[in-house]
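re: that chain from earlier
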Amino acid sequence: MGDAYCELDAGGHCITCSDEALQVRVLRVDQENGLALVTINDISEEVDITLVESVAPGDVLLVHGGAAIARLDEAHNA
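^ sequence. v structure.
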């Protein structure tokens, strides 16, 4: 599945290198470096947020390959 650096979730997927986009919640944002600490299923990981504007703690992002590709609105989170 993943390489030695992957932390797999309960389904055996790594949020950094899996082949599917996953919904994650933002815990902390480092705008200067274009990174955010996110969580999914009690696993925390840093992801690139340079493709998504105005990311803030609490936002829900869609992540693929270690990069945020979209911010989801409340309708997606219900």
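The beta strands are 22-30, 35-40, 43-48, 60-64, 67-72.
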